[in-house]
């Protein structure tokens, strides 16, 4: 029976890590998987997290179970950052739970949606591959709309058409900021329109916020999410701390549900808790406890926000330098300057992606998605020269 299982492809993004590691060239460049890197090419633990971890080791006196909801202090401390200081629980309509990363949160959100009777999820194309994979695994149909228009802005017409054609039983999965893989986000005006369109529909919004603070700022990156939440009766939010606290492998995330009537909140969340028990029982504690300790301490919070600002500033500098290269060989790097977060797509052909790897030792996804944080002031010129070479 087990031998009847079919071979599954490796995760293409995670496979790139190995490909890059086995390349012996000293000047190779890794623009693959989405982790932040400093100007020296490292992905260090945040100073604020190191300090919180030291405190945790010194002070934590038990590792007894917490329950499927995890560390509720962590979950609640994050809420003002996500939903706004003055509307942190929207008048008792929002409750959350800790999950293993943003992925665990998406898994629970979509499983909850399925349980509630939704049948279809509207997803932009392209999206992070795990969105479609989780839907497929849960037996949720995916309805795709084109995310980015040819001119490098969002394809609002495609989104409007998708919303207009929605049926009862549809949910929509939207990237809150720092769109993965395109870096092309909705403008504030576009979010205003999306919120209004969703308010007139029966569609349940699921907002995936995995990069808050890496785009234009902590508050700015929550704009769309907050606009949608004030407009609609119900919504789900999948949150990840794995990028904005640098916790990746510690798997730190949260799921928040907003309901119309506060009286329904505990019933809705009991489904999240039941699904967590059936999946992983309880989330891993360490990373979330460290985040809580950062957010409980004003000095550590200021240090964390400062570290996040530095990350964002560095990515802006890299983007500006790439954009300044302008037309390079057969591609234009200018749009990269106005895009947000870790990723942008450079319109390489599959052969050009391959040539970047074999000829120049520069690794990124087959879609042409580059992790801009993999570039430094020391290697951008090498990247731009390689782009000119393979696209000429
Ligand atoms: N959502 C998007 C769009 C992502 O790119 C990621 C990436 O890692 C996640 C969610 C989940 O992150 P994690 O499960 O590592 O917290
Ligand atoms: O898109 C990325 O690179 C990040 C990291 O299965 C990631 O979101 C990639 C693939 C994956 C899990 C995380």
From TrEMBL:
<feature type="coiled-coil region">
    <location>
        <begin position="301"/>
        <end position="328"/>
    </location>
</feature>
<dbReference type="InterPro" id="IPR015421">
    <property type="entry name" value="PyrdxlP-dep_Trfase_major"/>
</dbReference>
<keyword id="KW-0808">Transferase</keyword>
<dbReference type="InterPro" id="IPR004839">
    <property type="entry name" value="Aminotransferase_I/II_large"/>
</dbReference>
<protein>
    <submittedName>
        <fullName>Aromatic amino acid transaminase</fullName>
    </submittedName>
</protein>
<keyword id="KW-0032">Aminotransferase</keyword>
<dbReference type="Pfam" id="PF00155">
    <property type="entry name" value="Aminotran_1_2"/>
</dbReference>
<dbReference type="InterPro" id="IPR015424">
    <property type="entry name" value="PyrdxlP-dep_Trfase"/>
</dbReference>
<dbReference type="InterPro" id="IPR015422">
    <property type="entry name" value="PyrdxlP-dep_Trfase_small"/>
</dbReference>
<feature type="domain" description="Aminotransferase class I/classII large">
    <location>
        <begin position="27"/>
        <end position="386"/>
    </location>
</feature>
<keyword id="KW-0663">Pyridoxal phosphate</keyword>
<dbReference type="InterPro" id="IPR000796">
    <property type="entry name" value="Asp_trans"/>
</dbReference>
<keyword id="KW-0175">Coiled coil</keyword>
<comment type="similarity">
    <text>Belongs to the class-I pyridoxal-phosphate-dependent aminotransferase family.</text>
</comment>
<comment type="subunit">
    <text>Homodimer.</text>
</comment>
């Amino acid at each position: 029976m087990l031998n009847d299982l079919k071979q599954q492809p490796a995760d293409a993004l995670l496979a790139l890590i190995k490909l890059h590691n086995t390349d012996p060239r000293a000047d190779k460049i890794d623009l693959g998987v989405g982790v932040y890197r400093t100007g020296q090419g490292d992905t260090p633990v945040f100073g604020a997290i190191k300090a919180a971890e030291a405190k945790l080791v010194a002070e934590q006196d038990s590792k007894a179970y917490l329950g499927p909801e995890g560390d509720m202090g962590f979950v609640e401390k994050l809420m003002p950052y996500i939903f706004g200081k003055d509307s942190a629980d929207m008048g008792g309509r929002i409750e959350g739970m800790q999950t293993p990363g943003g992925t665990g949160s998406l898994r629970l959100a979509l499983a909850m949606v399925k349980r509630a009777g939704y049948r279809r999820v509207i997803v932009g194309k392209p999206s992070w591959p795990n969105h479609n994979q989780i839907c497929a695994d849960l037996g949720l149909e995916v309805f795709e709309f084109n995310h980015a228009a040819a001119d490098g802005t969002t394809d609002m017409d495609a989104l409007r058409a998708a919303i207009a054609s929605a049926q009862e039983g549809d949910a929509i999965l939207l990237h809150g900021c720092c769109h993965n893989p395109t870096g092309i986000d909705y403008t504030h005006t576009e979010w205003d329109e999306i919120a209004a369109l969703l308010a007139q529909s029966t569609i349940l919004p699921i907002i995936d916020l995995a990069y808050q603070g890496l785009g234009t700022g902590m508050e700015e990156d929550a704009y769309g999410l907050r606009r949608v939440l004030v407009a609609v009766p119900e919504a789900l939010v999948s949150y990840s701390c794995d990028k904005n606290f640098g916790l990746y492998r510690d798997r730190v995330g949260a799921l928040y549900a907003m309901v119309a009537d506060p009286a329904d909140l505990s019933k809705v969340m009991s489904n999240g808790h039941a699904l967590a028990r059936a999946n992983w029982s309880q989330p891993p504690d360490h990373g979330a406890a460290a985040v809580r300790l950062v957010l409980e301490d004003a000095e550590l919070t200021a240090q964390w926000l400062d570290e996040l600002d530095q990350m964002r500033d560095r990515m802006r500098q890299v983007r500006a330098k790439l954009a300044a290269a302008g037309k390079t060989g057969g591609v234009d790097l200018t749009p990269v300057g106005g895009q947000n977060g870790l990723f942008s797509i450079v319109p390489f052909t599959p052969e050009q992606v391959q040539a970047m790897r074999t000829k120049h030792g520069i690794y990124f996804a087959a879609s042409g998605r580059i992790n801009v944080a993999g570039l430094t002031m020391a290697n951008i010129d090498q990247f731009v020269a390689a782009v000119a070479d393979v696209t000429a």
